[in-house]
Amino acid sequence: MRNSGFQGVPIWIVLAGQGSTWRRQVETYNEIRRRVVKAAKKMADRGMVVGTAGNVSARIEGTSRFVITPSSLPYADMEAEDTVVAELDGTVVEGRRAPSSEFLLHSRIYTARPDVKAVIHTHSPHATALAALRMPIPPFLDELVTYIGGPVAVAQYALSASRELAENACAALEDRAAVLLANHGTVSVGADLEKAFHTAELVEEAARIYLLARSVGLPVEIPPESFELYRTLYTLSKSGS
User: Fold this and answer.
1) Active-site pick, 94, 102, 201, 204
2) How confident is the model at residue 21, as a pLDDT?
3) Among this protein's residues, is 102 annotated catalytic?
4) Is the same domain home to 49 and 86?
5) Which one of 14, 88, 188, 228 has the lowest number of neighbouring Cβ atoms within 10 Å?
6) What's residue 51's pLDDT?
């Protein structure tokens, strides 16, 4: 991961030479950093991660940059200033800490999916149990197709924080809103942090219900005609129609 010559230099100084819009850009940066931390703390409070596991990021609209949580910092202690602003190519623009070790996962998703504006990686227990079993979540609930676009697939196993993990996750995600990482956890994406977080919660709840249903039988997938209808709704919502 490369550092630009701007590392450690306040972002407002960098932007000051870019014209009269710099104050608005600074406000945007700072607001996104606050929202990322808020989502990360909420993720921890909901029991979706333990310790410093998991990570959250959000794209900065109109740029090739995104904000991501730092590495190995307890969420209770995290402040907006602890987040890292980086380019998709790995150049750190601003940040007093190292970015999350899963930086490549986030940057690869943003590169492959221009529609994605936020990424949340959790280790929520029921979904991670399925990831450990390498068992996808089939479309047995209407909401899975409406909000996620279909089944929640399992990406092929790769080492944490590796480029291979990032590539495997993108391949399994396709155009949907969530994917399980084999023997690891989950990744949820969305048009903003609120939608990505809703998806993360939906995946965990669906995993819990799926495991409960499988304890007494095999869950039945929704009919093909319903799948197509809900899939159309998902596609329209993703495109903003």
Assistant:
1) 102
2) 57
3) yes
4) yes
5) 228
6) 96
If 0-12 CB within 10 Å is exposed, 13-18 middle and 19+ buried, where does residue 21 land? Answer: exposed
DSSP annotation of 87:
E
pTM above 0.85, yes or no: yes
Local confidence band at 18 (pLDDT 50, 70, 90 cut-offs): low
Q: Are 65 and 85 in contact (CB under 8 A)?
A: yes
From 218, 236, 219, 100, select the one nearest 165 (Cα to Cα): 100
Find the domain containing 65 and state its range.
Answer: 1-99
Closest CA to 165 of 178, 154, 149, 151: 154
Q: Where are the alpha helices (DSSP H) in 22-93?
A: 22-45
Same domain, 126 and 88: no
What distance in Å separates the CA atoms of residue 201 and residue 198, rounded to the nearest whole number?
5
Residues 54 and 4 grouped into a single domain: yes
Q: What is the CATH number of the domain that holds 226?
A: 3.40.225.10
pLDDT tens, 102-139?
Answer: 999 999 999 999 999 999 999 999 999 999 999 999 99
Q: Are 55 and 174 contained in the same domain?
A: no
Cα distance between residue 219 and residue 210, in whole Å? 7
**CB of 104 closer than 8 Å to CB of 162:** yes
pLDDT of residue 32: 97
Which helix (DSSP H) or strand (DSSP E) does residue 65 occupy?
strand 65-68
The contacts of residue 164 (CB under 8 Å, 6+ apart) are 158
159-168 confidence digits (pLDDT tens): 999 999 999 9
